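Hi Y.,

Following your request, here is the sequence exactly as I used it, all 435 residues.
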Amino acid sequence: MSAPEPSPLTGFGNHFESEAVAGALPVGRNSPQQPPLGLYAELLSGAAFTAPRADNRRTWMYRRQPSVVAGAYEPYEQPHWKSGAASGEQAPPDPLRWHPVEVPAAPADFVDGIRTVAANGDPDAHVGIAAHLVLCNRSMQRALVNADGEMLLVPQQGALVITTELGVLRVVPGQIALVPRGMAFKVAVDGPTRLYVCENHGAPFRLPELGPIGSNGLANARDFVAPQAAFEADAGATEIVRRYGGRCWRTRAASSPFNVVAWHGNLVPFAYDTARFNTIGTVSFDHPDPSIFTVLTSPSDTPGTANCDFVIFPPRWMVAEDTFRPPWYHRNVMSEFMGLVLGQYDAKPEGFRPGGMSLHNAFVPHGPDAEAFEKATNAALAPHKLDHTLAFMFESRWRLRPTAWALQGGALDGAYAGCWAGLADRFAAGRAGPR
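Below is the corresponding structure, written out as tokens. Let me know if you'd prefer a different format.
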């Protein structure tokens, strides 16, 4: 199955349609008595039928065989894929950081390569997230359907070709992909591959409101790319792995689930190039809140307090006057899982490397290390371009509990807290500071 140029299908949250064969889409009816070309009509709902129109997500598929043509499922053991707060370990309120983990030599595809680092919430209650690291070196010869949550893929090493029921997406480091909950997909790789994944059990990701920013800025809807319809003509029997109720199951279907010839709707997989993010920042003084870097948000039942925010820290100009430009020292109500795709993160020049991770849970103090503090405090405040870098954050209102693999797998940086040891007491009584 090839990946046609996706340019006619762009946007986020709009209604799309696509057909791989002319005339496959019915006109004026979603489920006609006899769909065109002998196809079957099938609806994938991403919201309750009675959800408000603005929040109602669904896609009609016209396929060669419906999804019900599959055998019975049996358990499939993947001991490193965890879900929900109950699957995590009790951990002290310490800042945590992990060194990059190398891709093992043993063959592993996307499913077997998932290593859950931290999780919260409960997939059955439709709340919370899981932060995964995926270490794989083999393309999937099977399909994955995650009924527990949508999956946000952030490649760090290696390109991905993501085949979905609606078509094919290609993403490389610096780009991301979002696969809706309940949609079959598979991931092809070309050699050792490392990526971060946010498995979102809560409300589907959407663009954040812009408020006083106005109608333009941050991630623009037109830059999210949906796939063109494409189908596998003669794939034959296919194993399907289903994530369901916090564990994996598998069956052997007589044919490929990637048999959708045409579709229309707004529950659609997307790719997005973070280079198109329109960064907003200060042109006077002070370091704004990191919320200005939000690409996507999964709201919770508390307005303004997200189940998950996906935040990036891309290349940008630093121009503020009389300002400590790296992130300030802080303790937040939100919990922050962070990764580095490429380059250097301005607040952690020491120890935080591409492919690494950190976790700062709610009210755990953190901020620039001693080296970053000294450099930023004494720097001449001329305009400066922070370039060749991309960090990201999965930020959640609930505490993230690290897994046993994360705590005992050998990558945990036991010396992380030492990066702040050089921050001496600088108080000088009687010396007036700026007002």
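The radius of gyration is 23 Å.

Thanks again,
Q.
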